[in-house]
Amino acid sequence: MPTHPLARFFDRVDDVTAEIARREAGGVAHSAAVDDEIAVCHPKQLDLVVDEVITETATTKTFRLRRATGELLPPFQAGQYISLRLQIEGVRTSRAFSVSSSPTKRRHYDLTVRRVPGGRVSNHLLDAVAPGDRLVSSGPIGTFQHNPLFHGEDLVFLAGGSGVAPAMSMIREVVDRGLPRTLHLVYGSRRADDIIFRAELDQVARDCPEITVDHVISEPDADWSGPTGFLSAAVVERLAGPLRGRMTYVCGPPAMYAYQLRQLDRVGHPRRRVRLEANGIALPAGEDRDWPADVDPTVEVTVAVRGRGAFRTPRSRPLLDALEDNGFQPEASCRSGECSMCRVRVVRGGVFTAAEARLRMSDRDFGFTHSCAAYPVTDVEVDF
Ligand code: FES
């Protein structure tokens, strides 16, 4: 057998190629088996049924979803999300929701949804979706999961509101698998009755020495005796101890990110030890400090989609939302600038792209942007 070109990098490459050859000679279609495995782990679409709707707080529900076929759901890692694809009042759109259930449970995914004022998708789910309803989603996706090789086993998780969902999944996994991992959750809520999963979190913290939970309330009632305020550097270090050397996860409403990064900078916590799960773009158009000072975000511009039509939209509307409002559908998943699935090419005109968009150098060079994080500042023409 000829030597494989990778043999000088990997000690056992000859053994592996010999095993592949042996299986193929025995009638095993190796690539077909791999394709089957990929289809199980990374399906393009999941057809789901709402099994149960659990009321968590006055503004939050958990939707327990099972696979319509009755099969196991694809494996996922705690911290990942699925992107629900919906049609609401004639507009086809999508939203990413972190899975809050444990990756050890593959009969269902739990999605924990909090009402967002004016939130088209969250309000639709909370008000109109009931057990027995069918939903469609992507497979599990995202990079917010814990990687023990790079992140160590001593974690601090700073959560706000429904940003506790991926923390809950991580905590449930630690408990279910008995992982040798310590996780300190510092969880900010406006009021005590806004705390999601409070009973379970407090029970786990009592039973499991690896898990510590602190609730921080920003608008406490008179009977709240715990920590108050926001998750400032001082509050976080007082509760969780020094952050030095510990991987810090941050998940919450978009407005939380800039504040939290400033606080972590203040105690010298390096960015490489911070992992963010952005549930959207941090700042609305016009409030981003890089937004051009002479561009009024309320003014309407024309967006043309090459060869397919045009519409008017305010500059403040993210390009992806504006396209969906008008019947166009770029592919999308994270809606927070990260995954690049909503990439469009700006053929003519100018857009403001928020810093969250992780544009590749080649995207910049060839005029592509991530439409979920881009705002049209002039009349534009896009292509996708
Ligand atoms: S949808 Fe992921 S980058 Fe826009």
What does this structure look like?
The protein has 384 residues and is an alpha/beta fold. The mean pLDDT is 92. Helices cover 24% and strands 29% of the residues. It has three domains: 38-141, Translation factors (Elongation Factor Tu (Ef-tu), domain 3, Beta Barrel), CATH 2.40.30.10; 148-278, Rossmann fold; 300-383, Roll (Ubiquitin-like (UB roll)), CATH 3.10.20. The protein is built from ten helices and 18 strands. The radius of gyration is 23 Å and the shape is globular. Strand 1 and strand 2 (60-67) form a beta hairpin. The structure holds FE2/S2 (inorganic) cluster. Residues 332-335, 337-342, 370, 372 line the site of FE2/S2 (inorganic) cluster.
- For this structure, the CATH topology of the largest domain is Rossmann fold
The CATH class label of the largest domain is: Alpha Beta
- The helix-and-strand class reads alpha/beta
* Ligand list: FE2/S2 (inorganic) cluster
Radius of gyration computed on alpha carbons: 23 Å
Summarize the main sheet.
6 strands, antiparallel
Alpha plus pi helix count: 10
**Strand share of the residues?**
25-35%
Note the run of SSEs as H and E: HHEEEEEHEHEHEHEHEHEEEHEEHEEE
CATH superfamily of the largest domain: Nucleotide-binding domain of ferredoxin-NADP reductase (FNR) module
- Helical fraction equals 10-25%
Number of E-state strands: 18
Regions with little confidence, pLDDT below 50 for 5+ residues: none
